[in-house]
């Protein structure tokens, strides 16, 4: 006898269906605010070692599901595994964030290998298979990649910067060379996401964390166009794929992104006005967001007010409750519990 289909509330939202209780997951939910993550991290060594050790990466992916019962699990990995698979040196230094071998000369980009090494990324697909076998059937499993623009900003500078000026300046001075870099990253991202989906994730999110530093014309060229190419190419291979776009800080560029890129849902940062999100965005696409991570860190009445405002504005349509960016490491577990109780009523 055929088993009835399993209800996955988060995936239902991505299919355009409003849920009576908004499904919840948090960006960076598998991370440093959890003591059980800290214990595994000490065992693994570096962040990259953790990403590429399937048993450990699967464990930290599942930890927040066990503790909080989130409606979505997101693969534990990092957006910079793509540069690593392209043969670039990537390391994570405590207190300093990611450190890469900078691509700050046109000749270095011209010499860049055109294809990510599939063997390097293979352990990540094994992590997905391990998580999939252990995940509750009602939980939506999310894969992800970084937006080509955002990944490129780290590759050009060799590290994160407040406004990603090194990549912006490089793109102005060497637009054709920069376009080649984004083409390489776009192709690698398509293959990477397709392999994640084949390994077992239910949907994917494209994180363009640094989209908001670009002026409108450059936003269209370096954020919208590469993301649109990823979405189009994925849909040619997997027509039913569900994709969340997260162009953090897009501001007035959001509607252009919404109308052009073709994602199934829009992730909202905490700076997006709720009335605008409801009236301009949610009428066209499901939305996800957008609690300020600092409100979650603060807790108390400030957290309750923020959660209530978001739910009141957006829960009338297809909506996934999330943060407007990643959870902050000092966030108390009790505040996450308070947030979940408030959302779930």
Topology:
Elements: H1 9-14, H2 35-44, H3 47-51, H4 54-68, E1 72-74, H5 81-85, E2 90-93, E3 97-100, H6 106-110, H7 118-134, E4 140-146, H8 148-157, H9 165-173, H10 175-199, E5 203-208, H11 216-237, E6 243-247, H12 254-261, E7 265-267, H13 274-281, E8 287-291, H14 293-298, H15 300-314, E9 319-323, H16 333-344
Parallel strand pairs: 1-4, 4-5, 5-6, 6-7, 7-8, 8-9
Antiparallel strand pairs: 2-3
Helix pairs in contact: 2-4, 4-7, 7-10, 8-9, 8-10, 9-10, 10-11, 11-12, 13-15, 15-16
Features:
345 residues, seven-stranded parallel beta sheet, TIM Barrel, globular, alpha/beta, two-stranded antiparallel ribbon
Written description of the protein model:
By secondary structure, this protein is of the alpha/beta class. It has a single domain (9-344), classed as TIM Barrel (Alpha-Beta Barrel), CATH 3.20.20. Helices cover 52% and strands 12% of the residues. The protein is built from 16 helices and 9 strands. The strands form 2 sheets. A 7-stranded parallel β-sheet has the order 1-4-5-6-7-8-9. A two-stranded antiparallel ribbon has the order 2-3. A hairpin with a 3-residue loop joins β2 (90-93) and β3. α13 (274-281) packs parallel to α15 (300-314) and α15 (300-314) runs parallel beside α16. It is globular. The two termini are 37 Å apart.
